[in-house]
Structures are given as C-alpha cells and as structure tokens.
Design goal:
Strand order of the largest sheet: 4-3-2-1-5-9-8-7-6
Helix content: 25-40%
Shape: globular
Number of helices: 5
Radius of gyration: 17 Å
Strand content: 15-25%
Largest sheet: 9 strands, mixed
Number of strands: 9
Length: 214
C-alpha cells in the first residue's frame, strides 16, 4: 500500500460507497449474487475507483465493505483485498472514459446462458423491444451482440479477450464469461442498473426460446 486518499473528498467516497452498497443489496435480493459472488464499482475520478472488498456478502454491504483502488487495480489507503477480477473493472474505465459504474453479477439466467452460447462465442439479440433499454439502441430492428468469453482464472487473458473485441471495432455494452456471469457498465448507477436488468430479461427470453422451440 503506497498511495493515500489524502486528495480524495471523503463525502464523495461515502456517497459512492453508499450507492454501491444499496445497489448490491437490491441485486442480492434478486438472487443475482449468490455465495458472496459478484463485484461492483464506481469511478471516483480519473485515477481512482471505489469497489467491493473481496468475499463480502453482497446482501449485507455497508460503507466499510467498499475500498478504493487505482486504475492499475491496486489498493489505495487500505490493506483490504479487492476482487481478483478488479482488472476487468479498471479496463472498462480506461477503455470507456464516459463509464462511471461497472456491475458484475452471477444470476442463474446469466450463468446458464453463458454455458449454452459459449460455443457460438456470442448471444445475438434481435427483435426484442427491450433492446431499447441499452444506451444507443433506439429500435427493436437492431442487432445487439453480447460476447461470451472463455473463462480463466488468469485475468490478463480475459482482459486481452475484451480488448480484442473492442479493438475490432464491434460495439460492446456487456459481456458474459462462460460459466461465470455478466459484466455491464454505464454513465451512472441508474443507467447501469437498467442495462443489467434489461440484459437479464433478454437472456431469459433467449433461454425460453431455446427451450420451447421445436
């Protein structure tokens, strides 16, 4: 631990920690964060973000369960340990300057969809009215691809897969990790929550289509 929080407004950190904890408790109530899984973060400034401490019960979070990291994913002003997946959060902040919130959950729907579509490498959403809940989509007559990346415990590999998708020029609003869960982001908590809830619904619809189609 070498950096400090001396220059950071304590009120800003408290408000972001409260927002993360509130969202986490609500998403836990949906059953989307089982067994201490999932992680959530909010940007504090260009160099720092607030993120959930690893291993905490997301249904019982408070301010003390949130820590600060720099954009290299290193702890700042704390000896606590952030999630092993912290690099996936800071990657979003570095690649998308407009993004201020990242939410990662492990719902049953997300996990099953990731396994079912892993071989295809993506889930293609077309014709669903709720695609319009994703920022930038104004009609159901559009294509929204959600990539499914192979799982690994080696985070640089995952980060490289995400970078390759972005560098190819294809839009990216969220992604699944095979057998794992979903990452999505937005300009603020409200937009990111909307993205997450819409994608949960859309993935459920795709699973139902697969199950019910002859």
């Amino acid at each position: 631990m070498t950096k400090t929080l001396d220059h950071l407004d304590p009120a800003l950190l408290a408000s972001r920690a409260d927002a993360i904890a509130d969202a986490a408790r609500e998403l836990a109530a949906f059953g989307w964060t089982p067994a201490t899984s999932s992680n959530f973060s909010m940007r504090l400034d260009n160099d720092l973000a607030a993120i959930t401490i690893s291993g905490r019960d997301k249904g019982r979070l408070g301010r003390d369960d949130i820590m600060v990291i720099d954009m290299d994913g290193k702890a700042v002003g704390s000896d606590s340990r952030p999630s092993a997946e912290t690099g996936l959060h800071t990657q979003v902040y570095k690649r998308y300057p407009e993004a201020n919130v990242v939410l990662h959950t492990h719902s049953r729907t997300q996990s099953v969809a990731s396994r079912l579509f892993a071989a295809e490498g993506r889930i293609r959403l077309e014709g669903w009215e709720l695609q319009k809940a994703i920022t930038g989509y104004t009609t159901h007559e559009s294509v929204l691809d959600i990539p499914v990346f192979p799982n690994t415990q080696h985070m640089p590999e995952l980060e490289a897969q995400v970078d390759a998708w972005i560098d190819s020029g294809k839009p990216l609003h969220a992604y699944l990790i095979n057998g794992h869960g979903i990452y999505t982001w937005g300009r603020d908590m409200a937009e990111t929550r909307r993205h997450l809830e819409a994608l949960e619904f859309l993935l459920g619809c795709e699973l139902d289509l697969r199950r019910l189609s002859p």
